[in-house]
Amino acid sequence: MSIGDVIGKLFAGVARAFAFARVALANFVVLAILLIVVVALMSGPDRAEVPDGGALLLAPKGAIVEQTSTGEPLNLLVGGSFGETSLGDILDAIDRAAADSRIGALVLDPSSLSYVAPAQLEAIGDSLDEFRASGKKVVAKGHYYNRDQYYLASFADDIYLHPMGEVMLAGYGAFRNYYQGLFDELKVNVHVFRVGTYKAFVEPYTRSDMSEAAKVASQATIDSLWTRFVDRVAANRGLETAAVLAYANRFDELLAEAGGNTAELAMEHGLVDALLANEAVSERLRTLTGGEDTYRHVAFDDYLPPSMPPLFGDTVALISASGPILMGNQPRGFIGADTMARRLRDARKDDSVKALVLRIDSGGGSAFASELIRQEVAEVQEAGKPVVVSMAGTAASGGYWIAATADEIWAAPTTITGSIGIFAIVPTFENTLGAVGVTRDGVGTGPFVGALDPLGGIGDAMGRALQASIDHGYDRFVKLVADGRGMTPEQVDAIAQGRVWTGEKALELGLVDQLGHLEDAIASAAALAGIERFGVRHLEEPLSPREALLRQVLDNLGLDAGTGRLSGSLATGFMRELRLLDALNDPKHVYALCERCGEAGL
């Protein structure tokens, strides 16, 4: 036998060994998965021991989101958050605890909450109301309550505040940085093509202040949000609306009269029930839950059972669309046209899926990507499956585009929606280079050669072409809305022009069908499909191994999410906007994007 034969047999043996190992490993993985499923089903839903008569501790960290992202560290540099808490997890925990005989109360600690949209606040508040309606007590505790933290606390039976604490109800605002002066100094030309009187996304790059049209629209929106906030807080606390407004607007005067004691001021105005130091709070909670050394409780993220998709029967598929809308495949926290298309095709081709709920939380992005997603939504409808859109905190511009032709649209009263308009923005730096002695020259076969070169400027021909494309895109957007909403293009144009509306106003205008939250939309989708008994399956892009590891590392760091949102400085705001502009990848440079919907001051 030659050496070659020996080596050949050796490699053949190694190959057979690897083949055997591969099959054995695959079988082992299948058996392990089955074992995990069986153990999960037999061991019950609890992940932590729930003490009888104990409390559910609800202490959300960081930003409340519709879908947790990958936790990229770069997000911290552009206004991101160390932590995220899923709105669905919060609502599931509250609803489950209301029906759980072992849970006797709910303790709310919102001190680590950094950002939550008004529509999400209302959803959590409604669930807290239902929890109290079950006969169980809600207690809120904190050293300090800002506007959103206090809104949640107002649903409690008792609100405890530290004797040196404060309740600050600052109201709503809409503020942005404007860079025209900076660009003038740098001799940067910003070319803007848009349709929509109120399409204000581009204003910071072309103006030094907010336009009058943008001020009118923004003021109407924040006034509506603030009115709902004050009315709900006043009703929760049994106060007059005027009293809450006076506390918010005359805080400095009232504080001077109270000798600067912020905690006593909140107590005097009925915003809290007791001023208690940490140990006194613990003593009351021990009495409430029957604890000895500490109060008996279970944290809400330990209380939730592992998510188990329905294995059999009819299904309502739930797909989350959260973040800027971009072309291609995108990670969580962004809406990629290709990524979303796969999820929608999965729902369309799955015979067990009888209806689809699309949960949208987006201010828009690429017009092309928005249309690609909307077409996939239409394919689901063509397959005979009803599609119901549930709008979260924001579903505006491109976010409304992908919703426009759904069978039914639900929004919360404080959802930010509309913003029907599009634009293109192209910065060029030919004058910047000229200021330092750099010039540019050359030849081409026509007026469009190198016409979008950021170092060469935009010629008149390209400018006309871009504006024509924008005009056509706006007309298409308006027609889609008109077809989807049973309106004429003229009727849509009258309420479009880039104008932003709250969900409550959008209902009056015919842009949405119903006011309600996600569970309402799911029930409606099932009714449209004619099914009574069904499960809900959340179809989402799984985290890659790298993303899963990154999220686990960030979670294990144990950072204080309450200070995790880095925003407010000129550099941070500019970096955030530059990163968004850099991420926008529409091949035609045409965007349906709302001007920071749900962010600035909200």
Task: Please describe what this structure looks like.
- The chain has about 600 residues and is of the alpha/beta class.
- The protein is built from 22 helices and 23 strands.
- The strands form six sheets. Strands 11, 14, 16, 17, 18, 20, 21 and 22 form an eight-stranded mixed β-sheet that branches.
- Helix 2 packs parallel to helix 3 (about 120-135), helix 13 packs parallel to helix 14 (about 365-380) and helix 17 crosses helix 18 (about 490-495).
Quickly describe the structure.
This protein is 45% helix and 19% strand.
Overall shape: globular
Question: Helix fraction?
Answer: 40-55%
Query: Unreliable runs, pLDDT <50, ≥5 residues?
Result: 1-15, 17-21, 33-46, 73-81, 557-569
Beta-strand content: 15-25%
Any idea what the radius of gyration is?
27 Å
Biggest β-sheet description: 8 strands, mixed
What is the first-to-last residue Cα distance? Answer: 81 Å
What's the helix and strand layout?
Layout: H1 3-43, E1 54-58, E2 62-65, E3 84-86, H2 87-98, E4 103-108, E5 113-115, H3 118-133, E6 137-145, H4 147-153, E7 158-167, H5 180-186, E8 189-195, H6 203-206, H7 212-237, H8 241-249, H9 251-257, H10 262-268, E9 274-275, H11 278-289, E10 297-299, H12 300-303, E11 315-322, E12 325-326, E13 335-336, H13 337-349, E14 353-362, E15 364-366, H14 367-382, E16 387-396, H15 398-401, E17 408-411, E18 416-418, E19 422-428, H16 430-435, H17 460-485, H18 489-495, E20 500-502, H19 503-509, E21 514-515, H20 518-529, E22 535-538, H21 545-556, H22 570-583, E23 591-593
Parallel strand pairs: 1-4, 1-10, 2-3, 2-5, 4-6, 6-7, 7-9, 11-14, 11-22, 12-13, 14-16, 16-17, 16-18, 17-21
Antiparallel strand pairs: 8-19, 15-23, 18-20
Helix pairs in contact: 2-3, 7-8, 13-14, 17-18
